[in-house]
Design brief:
Layout: E1 18-21, E2 28-31, H1 39-53, H2 56-64, H3 80-97, H4 111-124, H5 142-158, H6 182-201, H7 208-228, H8 236-246, H9 261-310, H10 312-368, H11 371-420, H12 423-428
Antiparallel strand pairs: 1-2
Helix pairs in contact: 1-5, 3-4, 3-5
Length: 429
C-alpha cells in the first residue's frame, strides 16, 4: 500500500510537519502542512485494505447484517449516530482480533463509557491518545481513523501477518533468434528493411513496391546461381526437413493498428454486410407486423363505426342530459349567488339588532338601577347636615356680632354720660 509507511502521531498529525519552539515561552508550535487535512483520507483507505486482510466482511459484516463502509466512510460526516455505532462495532471486533477480550457494544450503551474502554485498550497496546474522548463521539474525523488504524495494525501483528515485497510477472519474449543460412539471412534483411519502413512512416502496412523489387533481385540472384549449378547434390529428405524447420520463420506477420484507416474501412464493410443480412431477416418480420397492425386498426375502425351507429340514440339522449345538467348548474349558480347576498344582508341586520339590544339593555339597567337615587338621597342628606352646620355657625357669628354691637353701644352711652356731668358736681366731690 502506498501509505502503509506513513506514521500518524497520537494527536492525529502525520510525521514530517514542521515544528518550531516559541522564543522565551518554551511552547511547541505545530505547523500543519497544506496536505494534513487530506491525510485522514489516506489513513481511511489503508484501514479498508487492512480490514479486508482481516476478512472483516465474512466475520463481522455478514454476521451482524451490516453494510460495508466506503473508502472514505469515517473521513466525511454522513450520519453521526450510524458512524459512531459502526466505529464502536469495528473497534470491539479489532480488539478481539488482537487477542484481548472486549464485549460488543450495544446501541443503548453509554457512549462515554464505551469510548473510555476503547481508549484504555488502545493504551494497553502501547499506543498514545493525546486528544479528548469527545473527538470520537461524532463517529468521524482523523482521530477515529487513527484509532481504528492502530487497532487494525495490532490485529495484523497478532495473527502474524507481515508485508512482503511485490512480485512482478515475467515478460515473455515474442520470438527467439535462431541461426539461419544465407537464404534465411536474406529474408531477415528484407524483414528488417520492412520494419524500418514501418518505423519511419509510423504506419503498420507493407510497401509492396519495395518488396517486389527485393523479390525481383532475389529471383535474379537465384537464376544466376541456377545457371552455374546444373546438377543438384542436395538430398530431398533433408531439404523437406529444412523447409519444415524454417517455414514458421518465413511467415510475414502484419501487426494491426486500430488507428489505421484500412482497418476502419474493413470494419465498415463488415458492419454493412451484417446490417444488410440482419435487415433481410428483420424486414420480413416488420412487414408482417405492419400488416397485422393495419388489419387490427381496420377492425377497430369498423367496430367503432358499428358501435356509433348502434348507440346513436343513446348518445343523443346523453347530450340532451348534459345540456339539462349545464342549465341546472347555471340556475344553481345564480340561486347560490342570491343566497350568498341575502346571507350577507342577514348578517348585517343581525349585527344592527345586536347593537340595538345592547343599547336597550344598557338603558333599562340604568332606569331600574336604584344606585343613583340612593346616591342623590345621600347627597341631599349630606347637604342638609352641612346646611344645619352652616346655620349654626351663622347664628353664632350673628350672636357674637350682636354682642359686640351692644357692648360698643353701651360703651358709647357711658362715654356720653361721662361728658355731660356738671362741673359743680365734680367740685363737690
Amino acid at each position: 500500500m502506498a501509505a502503509a509507511a506513513a506514521v500518524v502521531t497520537p494527536s492525529g498529525l502525520e510525521d514530517g510537519v514542521s515544528r518550531s519552539r516559541g522564543d522565551g515561552a518554551g511552547e511547541v508550535v505545530v505547523e500543519r502542512g497544506p496536505g494534513a487535512a487530506y491525510h485522514m483520507f489516506v489513513v481511511m483507505e489503508d484501514l479498508v485494505e487492512k480490514l479486508k486482510l482481516l476478512r472483516y466482511e465474512e466475520e463481522l459484516l455478514r454476521k451482524n447484517n451490516l453494510k460495508p463502509p466506503s473508502r472514505h466512510y469515517f473521513a466525511l460526516p454522513t450520519n453521526p449516530g450510524e458512524q459512531f455505532y459502526m466505529f464502536c462495532t469495528l473497534a470491539a471486533w479489532l480488539i478481539n482480533k488482537a487477542g484481548r477480550p472486549f464485549e460488543q457494544p450495544q446501541e443503548y450503551d453509554d457512549p462515554n463509557a464505551t469510548i473510555s474502554n476503547i481508549l484504555s485498550e488502545l493504551r494497553l497496546f502501547g499506543r498514545t491518545a493525546d486528544f479528548p474522548p469527545s473527538k470520537l463521539k461524532s463517529g468521524y474525523g482523523e482521530h477515529v481513523c487513527y484509532v481504528l488504524d492502530c487497532l487494525a495494525e495490532e490485529a495484523l501483528k497478532y495473527i502474524g501477518f507481515t508485508w512482503k515485497r511485490p512480485t512482478y510477472p515475467m515478460e515473455e519474449l515474442e520470438e527467439e533468434t535462431v541461426p539461419e543460412d544465407d537464404a534465411e539471412l536474406t529474408l531477415n534483411k528484407v524483414d528488417e528493411e520492412f520494419v524500418e519502413e514501418e518505423t519511419d512512416n509510423e504506419e503498420n502496412f507493407i510497401d509492396l513496391n519495395v518488396l517486389k523489387a527485393q523479390t525481383y533481385r532475389l529471383d535474379m540472384n537465384e537464376s544466376a546461381k541456377q545457371e552455374d549449378i546444373l546438377e543438384s547434390t542436395t538430398d530431398a529428405a533433408e531439404w523437406s526437413l529444412e523447409v519444415e524447420r524454417v517455414l514458421p520463420q518465413l511467415k510475414v506477420t502484419i501487426r494491426t493498428d486500430n488507428k489505421d484507416w484500412r482497418i476502419h474501412v474493413d470494419q465498415m464493410h463488415q458492419h454493412k454486410s451484417g446490417i444488410e443480412s440482419a435487415l433481410k431477416e428483420t424486414k420480413g418480420f416488420l412487414d408482417k407486423l405492419h400488416n397485422e397492425i393495419s388489419r387490427t386498426l381496420e377492425k377497430i375502425g369498423s367496430r367503432e363505426k358499428y358501435i356509433n351507429n348502434q348507440l346513436e340514440h343513446l348518445v343523443q339522449e346523453y347530450r340532451a342530459a348534459q345540456a339539462q345538467l349545464s342549465e341546472a348548474r347555471e340556475r344553481y349558480q345564480q340561486g347560490n349567488g342570491g343566497v350568498t347576498e341575502r346571507t350577507r344582508l342577514l348578517s348585517e341586520v343581525t349585527e344592527e339588532l345586536e347593537k340595538v339590544k345592547q343599547e336597550m339593555e344598557e338603558k333599562g339597567s340604568s332606569m331600574t338601577d336604584g344606585a343613583p337615587l340612593v346616591r342623590i338621597k345621600q347627597s341631599l342628606t349630606k347637604l342638609k347636615q352641612e346646611t344645619i352646620q352652616m346655620d349654626i355657625r351663622i347664628g353664632v357669628v350673628e350672636h357674637t356680632l350682636l354682642q359686640s354691637k351692644l357692648k360698643e353701644k353701651s360703651n358709647m352711652t357711658r362715654d356720653m354720660h361721662a361728658t355731660v356731668i356738671p362741673e359743680s358736681t365734680i367740685g363737690s366731690y
